[in-house]
Specification:
The complex is a heterodimer. Chain A is α/β, with parallel strands linked by helices. Chain A has two domains: 186 residues, 3-Layer(aba) Sandwich (Rossmann fold), CATH 3.40.50.720; 126 residues, UDP-galactose 4-epimerase, domain 1. Chain A has a seven-stranded parallel beta sheet with strand order 3-2-1-4-5-6-11, sandwiched between helices. By secondary structure, chain B is α/β, with parallel strands linked by helices. Chain B has a domain of 226 residues: Rossmann fold. In chain B, 42% of the residues lie in helices and 15% in strands. Chain B is built from twelve helices and 13 strands. In chain B, the strands form four sheets. Chain B has a seven-stranded parallel beta sheet, sandwiched between helices. Chain B has a two-stranded parallel sheet with strand order 7-10. A two-stranded parallel sheet of chain B has the order 8-13. In chain B, strand 4, helix 4 and strand 5 form a beta-alpha-beta unit. Chain B is globular and about 55 Å long. The two termini of chain B are 39 Å apart. The relative contact order of chain B is 0.14. The chains are: A alpha/beta, B alpha/beta. The interface between A and B is medium-sized, with 26 and 13 residues.
């Protein structure tokens, strides 16, 4: 049955992948975004707009069966008020517009940032949120709004991704790829033996669409099922790349302090979320999504990072053009260039 | 009545529509969420678009009006087309940002504005959220305020809430709207502002001082208890024209409050460390004098104000609310503080 799907943030990194998959399976797709969609624009309807504007959202939701809410102000944007207005008020507006226009299902993309650094792993759907910084706090508040809306009768489900990888993913990850491509060392904090889970964007998109197909509000934690430590993942990447790049350890405390310092100087592309979690273990138990949605990830940590890297290599020369979202643009390395020169 | 346990007190049915000012505030959120379960329409005054969207998500019966209670056009919109509604006036400034002028503009001027529009739109009842502050502090640690206690306002806030009470009383006496005043002391519970996480954090880390020997007593009100009092004030047939103290069952000694918060923090899995600092009463008296001096010049410092007040017993007797409203508090200090702490943690507040 063909449905009409509204993808908010559908021109962004994950949004455009989700949009593509929805089109592939025969959905009619409307994209609401500040920026026009990059590819397959002729196959979908584009609405230029901002989730912070309730009237815009109401008209965007007219005639829509399913809303996939992917608008987010990600950690790379460091403006606290912007975090709140986009991630919290924007979500409230999406929920209100969906309710007022009779949308049948909303799937809200949350974040593992709501868990900060968990006391124990794996993190399940029952683990309480304990965010450590402004981004995680705003995403957690958005989840509370989803629950309020569900209590008031809207069918809204929540999908929480681990760190997203896949073709087209840039943002903070591009820093890593840049180093690997040039044969410079890449760094882990401490021994890099923290268990860190990624998720491939395609796997996440499949989970979102399956969540959209399932009636009744639910929450799903989504991540790769084959994963390991940060060091193992990066080792798999440098082995694959064969550029002579090696995985090196940095002492956690000083490295974190340095990341914070250079970020606060505006000299490197880090946000609090990055220096807090890069050296910490965080992994989801994804069995609920597997059981209830019949979802199965195709990518491991290693295959996801390798595919992202290959895409980066293939597209390196044309990156940085155009008005794209944070996760679709390479960040400026700034002072991090110095790290590349270390022997 | 479908909102509370059956009561022996004679009641009329609640209004189908409600108007709430201060709707996105600490008490307002608790009240609005409860009202939304049983009313056809809950019209809410909030101060920002952010608050409006977040509150409206809670229920389709919630309608929001964004603006300032001091602004006539805003209050016109608040009452536009609501007709015979119960009005819960919870908007007030308790800790002004800089100047004590805000106390009078908002707490007195705003109350007059809301009363006027409520009367013209045919409100069924005006439930006014008042405070202990018009009554100052008890003369001795074993004294409790009753509804017959004389006014003796505590500084700027107390004076402004006193003047608001006088406006409400005149409204009733003129026969404009049946009014009920609910006097709430220090309250606690979910949807609290960040200053409450700081309160918990200070106790957890041993930075919240016990003034003197801590035997001074304070009445406190858990927000659910207070909401019950407000809802009963709307429907009790004996209530119009009266004021009621609404609080937890009994006043607590200050040392008991701090000890209970420590226990509640531990109940919620937080380690409580650090010393239990004490400061002599004379220090609190100095803070109080400095606060009074500043306020006489229109200035306000929250820390000074709170420290000065901690020295005193502020306790009330809820017997009349029990008898005439059918009010019966259901949540006690430890359970309420646990819920309050859990809410902070669940919302990513650091304690």
């Amino acid at each position: 049955m063909a449905r009409t799907v509204l993808v908010t943030g559908g021109s962004g990194y994950f949004g455009s992948i989700l949009t593509g998959l929805a089109l592939d399976r025969g959905d009619r797709v409307r994209v609401l975004d500040l920026n026009p969609p990059g590819d397959r624009a002729d196959e979908l309807e584009y609405v230029a707009g901002d989730v912070r504007d309730l009237d815009t959202m109401r008209s965007a939701c007219e005639g829509i069966d399913v809303v996939l809410n992917n608008v987010a102000q990600v950690p790379l944007a460091k403006d606290r008020e912007l975090f709140w207005s986009v991630n919290v008020t924007g979500t409230a507006n999406v929920l209100l517009a969906a309710r007022d226009t009779g949308v049948g299902k909303v799937v809200h993309t949350s974040s593992s940032a709501i868990f900060g650094i968990p006391e124990t792993n794996p993190v399940t759907e029952e683990t309480p949120g304990r965010p450590l910084e402004a981004y995680g706090k705003a995403k957690l508040e958005a989840e509370f709004l989803c629950r309020d809306a569900a209590d008031a009768g809207l069918d809204v489900s929540i999908v929480r991704p681990r760190t997203i990888l896949g073709h087209g993913r840039l943002g903070i990850i591009a820093v890593l790829f840049e180093f690997v491509a040039e044969g410079a060392p890449v760094y882990v904090l401490g021994g890099g033996d923290n268990v860190y889970q990624f998720v491939h964007a395609n796997d996440l998109a499949h989970a979102s669409l399956r969540a959209a197909d399932r009636e009744k509000p639910a929450t799903y934690n989504i991540g790769a099922t084959e994963f390991g430590t940060m060091r193992e993942t990066l080792q798999a990447l440098v082995d694959h790349a064969g550029t002579g790049s090696r995985v090196r350890s940095l002492p956690t405390g000083p490295a974190r302090a340095a990341m914070r310092a250079v970020a606060e100087m505006g000299a490197a592309p880090f946000a609090p979320y990055h220096w807090l979690v890069y050296g910490e273990s965080l992994w989801f138990d994804t069995s609920k999504a597997q059981e209830e949605l019949g979802w199965q990830p195709r990518h491991s940590n290693a295959s996801a990072v390798i595919e992202s890297y290959e895409w980066f290599l293939a597209n390196r020369s044309t990156l940085g053009a155009g008005d794209r979202s944070h996760h679709q643009s390479p960040v400026k390395l700034g002072l991090l260039k110095l790290l590349k020169r270390l022997p | 009545m479908n909102e509370q346990e059956p009561s022996t007190v004679p009641t009329s049915p609640p209004a189908a529509s409600a108007v709430v000012t201060g709707a996105a505030g600490w008490l307002g959120q608790n009240l609005v969420r409860r009202l939304a379960r049983s009313r056809d329409r809950v019209r809410c005054l909030v101060v920002s678009d952010d608050e409006a969207s977040a509150l409206a998500v809670v229920s389709p019966v919630i309608e929001t009006v964004v603006g300032d209670v001091r602004d006539p056009a805003t209050v016109d919109r608040l009452f536009d087309g609501v007709g015979a509604a119960a009005v819960f006036h919870a908007a007030a400034v308790i800790h002004p940002r800089t100047s004590t002028r805000e106390f009078f503009d908002v707490n007195v001027g705003g109350t007059q504005m809301v009363i006027d529009r409520a009367r013209r739109s045919g409100a069924t009842r005006f439930v006014h959220v008042s405070s202990n502050s018009p009554f100052g502090v008890n003369p001795s640690p074993d004294h409790v305020f009753t509804e017959d206690s004389p006014y003796d306002p505590y500084m700027g806030y107390g004076q402004s809430k006193l003047e608001a009470e006088q406006l409400v009383r005149k409204t009733h006496e003129r026969g404009d709207i049946p009014t009920v005043m609910v006097r709430a002391p220090w309250f606690y519970g979910p949807y609290q502002p960040p200053r409450q996480s700081q309160f918990f954090s200070a106790i957890r880390k041993g930075r919240f001082p016990l003034v003197g020997d801590g035997t001074q007593r304070r009445s406190m009100a858990y927000t659910d208890n207070l909401v019950q009092g407000l809802l009963r004030a709307e429907v009790s047939e004996k209530a119009p024209g009266n004021a009621y103290w609404v609080a937890d069952a009994e006043p607590y000694e200050l040392r008991e409050i701090l000890d209970t918060v420590r226990l509640a923090l531990e109940d919620e899995g937080l380690t409580v460390s650090g010393p239990k600092p004490r400061i002599p009463r004379v220090a609190a008296r100095m803070a109080e004098r400095a606060d009074a001096l500043l306020q006489s010049r229109g200035r306000y410092l929250q820390a000074l104000h709170v420290l000065g007040e901690l020295n005193h017993t502020i306790a009330c007797d809820i017997s009349r609310a029990r008898d005439e409203l059918g009010y019966e508090p259901t949540v006690g200090l430890r359970e309420g503080m646990r819920a309050s702490i859990r809410w902070c943690l669940d919302h990513g507040e650091r304690i």
